[in-house]
Design goal:
This is FANCG protein. By secondary structure, the protein is mostly helical. The chain contains 29 helices and no strands. Among the domains are: 109 residues, no CATH class; 213 residues, Alpha Horseshoe (Serine Threonine Protein Phosphatase 5, Tetratricopeptide repeat), CATH 1.25.40.
Length: 586
């Protein structure tokens, strides 16, 4: 409440500088908002000089003070306070405001030294050119202006590198991040910078360089576990599954022993780089995977690579974690590596099938079926896209309706996939009647057909394509079991229906020819086979690759539906055609 006086202002501004540093350091979190104390300090300076600036913005206030206040004793405290202001603005991402402030803080000589070429960064040049004022003998500083300058330079390079990385300007990002790595920061921040350098190099298509940076991050701070998850991602990109799985296993072990903890307080209450740089892109790059996500990635990669026994072990571990109530602790955001829980169950069933544990696969699928049955509406109507609503309430209603339809389609796909897996499992057990019963479930025959026959919006197309594929595989699967039982006419009908869903499908076409052959309709079978064989070599694979990739839980079903007797059938048909030709000639 005392009036501002010029003789005491240097001491007052130094006390303000120290108190703001203590406040920022003691909070042990990122700096946010405005430094109101700095604004009040500037207003006190103007008051002592007989001026006012209540209506000015903080930037305008700084400009007025630095241009109009010429008292020599106030220059050093104002310079230090300006550096502290830069820290607050840097945390808010106001880089332009910082550049303008340091142009005012710098002398003409400093500004001349700050001139930079196009390749150099203007803000970093201004920060480096700024001459730190000498400390006075009156009151010690809790953090020197020189130390603050170094941290500002590091944080500015780090922040701008992240911005360029997010914008896709990778060479510029790499240069700025390398500048930050050579700056003054803690081991924790240095490891984060190297992690970002690794991600940048990976996006530039330089996986080996990325690995060097990521390994450097782990050497600096082995608790920087996001670097280890990025190492696994790079090896996945390189196709080195062995090392990728080793990295994931090491990551899972590290997370189990030492789960990520909150950052500990600095004992020195200093402004540090981690307080100044907090952007969404950094949060994304440094996101700690939950142990459940890593366990799932291990299971998924083993299944994709054909390591069935390992996949089964990891999936069962994951399902056991679910039973222990871990689901409530799992991350639910879109960045999570986890798919929907029913899909994990179906992938586990797929792994169990491939490992020969068919009864276990049936049990796991029954869990999916029982949990999703009540979630499927009795009538799921999918119509053409509606016109844009005129009011927000109508838009919200349509969005909710769309979400319900999408969820209904997902539940339907999971349930029908469960029946599909059970059908193949019973088939592998030699139980053809039970297999036919599962392949023939009402939801596979009627519920799926009533959805896929309707016009759909583009947003719902992926779910409908999955349902179509499930119906195709169910019909092929049931047809194969009819063949096993000698019910060739029923098998033929199923293969014909399959080709209506997916004309030219290689498996359905091959089985159709076999059914015709067994029905002694050999001429028709030979004609079909010749037409199929004369198609271009890559045409079948091209058709299989059309549309979107299949969910992982359907890949094994697709493999089981492949026709296994192509060579034998081809020889039989070739012999038949040669004999028919000889008879004609004779």
């Amino acid at each position: 409440g005392l009036p501002a006086a010029l003789p005491t202002l240097p001491l007052e501004l130094t006390v303000l500088y120290n108190s703001l540093l203590f406040t920022a350091g003691a909070s042990d979190s990122a700096i946010e908002g405005e430094a109101h104390g700095i604004r009040q300090g500037l207003l006190r300076v103007l008051e002592a000089c007989g001026a006012c600036g209540q209506d000015l913005s903080t930037e305008q206030l700084w400009q007025k003070v630095l241009q109009e206040v010429t008292v020599e004793e106030l220059q050093a405290p104002l310079q230090r306070l300006g550096a502290l202001q830069a820290a607050w603005w840097l945390a808010a991402g106001r880089l332009g405001s910082i550049a303008g402030l340091f142009q005012l803080l710098s002398t003409a000589e400093d500004t001349g030294r700050a001139h930079c070429s196009k390749r150099q960064n203007k803000l970093l040049s201004l920060l480096k050119a700024w001459r730190v004022p000498a400390e006075g003998p009156s009151l010690p500083l809790v953090q020197s202006a020189e130390d603050l300058k170094e941290r500002l330079c590091t944080a500015a390079a780090f922040l701008q590198g992240l911005q360029e990385l997010e914008a896709g300007n990778f060479p510029t990002a790499l240069s700025l991040l390398q500048e930050a790595a050579g700056g003054f920061c803690s081991k924790k921040v240095l490891a984060q910078i190297y992690t970002c350098l690794g991600c940048c190099a990976q996006r530039m298509g330089k996986p080996q360089t990325a690995l060097q940076h990521l390994k450097r991050a782990l050497q600096v701070d082995f608790e920087c576990l996001p670097a280890l998850s990025h190492v696994a991602a790079v090896y996945h990109e390189l196709g080195d599954t062995d090392v990728e799985l080793q990295a994931l296993a090491l990551l899972y072990e590290a997370l189990q022993k030492n789960p990520p903890a909150a950052a500990s307080s600095s004992p020195y209450f200093l402004i540090q780089a981690e307080m100044l740089v907090h952007t969404p892109v950094l949060t994304s790059l440094l996101r700690h995977l939950h142990p459940s996500e890593v366990k799932y990635l291990l299971a998924q990669r083993c299944l994709q690579d054909g390591r069935v026994d390992d996949a089964v072990e990891h999936y069962l571990d994951f399902l056991a974690l679910l039973q222990e109530g871990l689901q409530q602790q799992m991350p639910l955001d879109h960045s999570s590596a986890l798919p929907r829980i029913p899909e994990v169950f179906l992938e586990a069933a797929s792994a169990l099938e491939q490992a020969g544990r068919h009864q276990d696969a049936i049990t796991v699928c029954e869990e999916v079926i029982s949990r999703t049955t009540d979630l499927i509406p009795r009538m799921l109507r999918v119509e053409e896209r509606l016109e844009q609503p005129e009011c927000s309430s109508a838009g919200a209603g349509l969005l909710e309706d769309f979400s319900q339809k999408k969820e209904g389609l997902c539940c339907l796909a999971w349930r029908t996939a469960g029946y599909l897996h059970q059908g193949w499992a019973w088939a592998k057990l030699g139980k053809s009647k039970e297999a036919i019963m599962q392949f023939s479930r009402e939801c596979v025959e009627r519920a799926v057909s009533r959805c896929v026959c309707l016009s759909v919006t583009e947003d719902l197309l992926p779910e409908v394509e999955v349902l179509q594929k499930i119906r195709l595989l169910s019909l092929v699967g049931r047809g194969t079991q009819f063949l096993e039982l000698g019910r060739h006419k029923e098998a033929l009908l199923d293969f014909q229906y399959s080709l209506q869903i997916s004309p030219g499908d290689p498996a359905a076409t091959s089985y159709l020819v076999q059914a015709l052959w067994k029905l002694n309709r050999k001429q028709e079978a030979a004609s079909r086979w010749q037409k199929f064989s004369e198609s271009s070599p890559g045409e079948d694979r091209e058709q299989e690759g059309q549309g979107r990739p299949l969910p992982l839980y359907l890949v094994s079903c697709l493999e089981q539906a492949m026709f296994p007797h192509s060579e034998a059938l081809a020889r039989s048909i070739q012999d038949y055609l040669e004999t028919a030709t000889q008879d004609t000639s004779g």
